[in-house]
Amino acid sequence: MGDVVEVLAAAGPPGRGSPNLALSVLLALLSACAFAVSTVVQHRAATVAGQDLPQGAVLRLVGKLVRNKAWIGGQAAALAGFCLHAAALKFGPVVVVQPLLSGGLVISLALGALVDRRHPERLLPERGQWIAAGVVAVTLGLFVVSARPDHGGAYARPGPLLLCVGAAAAVMVLGAVWALRPRAAHKALVLGLGAGFGFGITGLLLKDVVAHPPGELLTSWTTYLLLASGAASITFAQWAYQSGQLIECLPVMAILEPLVAVGLAAPVYGERLAPGWLATTGQVVGVVGLVVGVAVLARRTAARDATGVPVAVPAPAPAPPPT
Q1: Which of 9, 129, 249, 298 registers the highest number of CB atoms within 10 A of its CB?
Q2: Is-contact 77 35, C-beta < 8 A?
Q3: pTM for the whole structure
Q4: Could you give the angle at which helices 187-211 and 94-101 cross, rounded to 10 degrees?
Q5: Quick one: DSSP state of residue 11?
Q6: DSSP string spanning 98-126?
Q7: Mind listing the pLDDT tens digit for each residue in 49-83?
Q8: Is 113 exposed, middle or buried (0-12, 13-18, 19+ CB in 10 A)?
Q9: What are the backbone dihedrals phi and psi of residue 318, each rounded to the nearest 5 degrees, phi first?
């Protein structure tokens, strides 16, 4: 991915290939790395801590994890990832930063394989996972190189932003109403849809919040929307994980988070992708390949690792079944 940064730094007219864009790419990749480290460390810590606990003993698991140095280190990595994510959005557009965070799936796979090689009893990634990871890496690079977006505005347009937040809130409310039905089908999938929309909106809000001077954060209404959106999204994600198999909800969340943010960046921030048939072809192929690669990778990873900590969500997973 280092070549991507070099291409971006040299490509396009002023305003499209600026040094700030290259910096935002670097920060987004570092953020993806930090979240990947957090995911792997917390996953392993939760797996070990939950071995002697009954299934569903989430509070007891959390009680053990908060005293676990490795898990605390994973939380620190997640915090670093969040700060790097915020910095990336400060210097670059949403349409570049948010898709790059999907690279955390690939990095998590590689880091997890390195750790698990030391434990013969653990399953290593299968060939299909590595192929999907390669597709994600290649198409992600293709999209970033061909996108070369205008940065748009630093602050969100209030009207479109509120409409987007309202739409996401409606999706989440409808998802909650559905999931509360005693015999509702596909609860995890529906809740995953709500979480995916919520995380996408959270990315949009974060860009506006980091554009404000520190002294204005407490008086900016987007700060409180960000806190509410983030809390609701994490709650829905955890609810989804507890309502069904990880394989049912993780792929839809992994796909929707970047797609929602990228799709709404134009009306909210005025960000525009590079024009021209060659650039557009690269963008379309990149997005389609990224969606397919992320879906396959998330689905295969979830199927082989049902007790894992959800990717890119730095929160403890439900206790795994005793072994």
Answers
A1: 249
A2: yes
A3: 0.72
A4: 130
A5: S
A6: HHHHTHHHHHHHHHHHHHHTT-TTSPPPP
A7: 666 666 555 567 677 777 888 888 888 988 999 89
A8: middle
A9: -60, 155
